[in-house]
Amino acid sequence: MNVHSPLQSREAAVRMASRDWKMLIDGEWLDGSTQDWLDVRDPATGEVIARAPAGGAADIHAAVAAAKAAFDDRRWLNLGAEERSRRLWRVADLIERDAAKIQAVEQLNNGAPASLAAFFTTYAAKFFRHYAGWCDKINGETIEISEPGAPFHTYTRKEPLGVAGLIVPWNGPFASAAMKVATALTAGCTCVLKPSEETPLSALMLGELLIEAGIPAGVVNIVPGHGHIAGAALANHPDVSKISFTGSTEVGKLIANAATGNLKKVSLELGGKSPSIIFDDADLSKAIPGAALGTFYNTGQVCIAGTRVLVQRSVYDQVVEGMAAVGRSLHLGGGFDPEAQIGPLISAKQLERVSGMIDVARDEGAQVLGGGLPFERGYFVEPTVITNARPDSVVVRDEIFGPVITAIPFDDPEEALSIGNDTEYGLAAAVWTRDIGRSQLIANSIAAGTVWVNCQLVLSPGAPFGGYKQSGWGRENGIEGLHGFMQTKTVMTAL
Length: 495
Description:
By secondary structure, the chain is an alpha/beta fold. It is 38% helix and 20% strand. It folds into 2 domains: 10-270 and 471-492, Aldehyde Dehydrogenase, Chain A, domain 1 (3-Layer(aba) Sandwich), CATH 3.40.605.10; 275-460, Aldehyde Dehydrogenase, Chain A, domain 2 (3-Layer(aba) Sandwich), CATH 3.40.309.10. A 7-stranded mixed sheet has the order 14-15-16-13-12-18-19, sandwiched between helices. It has a 6-stranded mixed sheet with strand order 9-8-7-10-11-21, sandwiched between helices. It has a 3-stranded antiparallel sheet with strand order 5-6-22, with no helix packed on it. α1 crosses α4 (99-110) and α3 (81-97) crosses α7.
């Protein structure tokens, strides 16, 4: 796959991004009805780099109306499966063509290092191609029934739900938007996408590519805005049949409550407090960097980050020292620092939250390795390993969404399972061991939607992804993710 190199100059990226952006409704680029604006910042400096309209309830209503009209007149479905597949594949081609620009915006607005921005852009194209191949493979089934009366021909159909509201986060904004849009369109839905108010730019760039690829007007609408205004209006809208949300558990619960108005379908990919369990027989040369980067990756702003590292006591000190060394070795920098391996947190608010949680742990008597604030500007915090934290400490119990590991010792597999499952979350887990039987015992018993064995942070468009407990409802990716945007109709015909 030939993906262009990212733009090397921050100044060139600023010139490209620095403008008043517009929202996409019914194929038109429009200013918001509120005349309010979102200041879009570079988290490496805190500087405002662009403005995007802060959509209000009226903008959401207009976008939903456009999506409903497009769904009702079947302007997307009536193209036929082969043509829909061709246009989704075209989106992937256009993403690769414009990869340099997309990556530059992710580096600038998200603070992602170049390699991470490139990965997210490549993954977005991969996702569109994966689902493009599903357009002509959506099938029902024929069912034999034995009921009194005439023989019956009975079959099922898979049909799209209707208008889908897609709400995406800031920790990989382009890829998150692409994943939800590709799935919804493959299912035959029309949609309204609300990107995070922190990172709206790359989602709007996706809108430009969708139009160029021939996605009809009104099929995809994009409205930036604040979650409590635009997001709430979308979740409450009576003409929205489905909400797909990725974000915090707290907001997910609000969306679930809002969905009761018209009993819209809801899928929620929420928070996590994932355990990485390292046994003393593990290959520590792989387990130590694997567990460390399983949290420090993307500055810890990953819902599946393994922030609780459970280590068998006999190798505990070695693993803790090794993970701290990995953290010290990582170069912190902005998106256009060529040596950067870890970028900034997304905002001053997030920096305050993460550093505050580290301070609480330190005040409670925990040992903190790292955790400094290395620069006078920007939202940077050093990778951190915490030991001897109280079991009820916020760093043990709560999602941090920063590069912070809490290391916890254990003695045997039963204790590891008990500690691993002692959380309200259940998004992911990792197991590091050479014992295949032990690995499967843990994988089968841990309450998590995804379990990695001797690896971490591996995701694929074809593999279902979602959480147990308060980490969410439903699954994304694969056929399960596609079915989340569809409903089943049973047809019975007397012969």
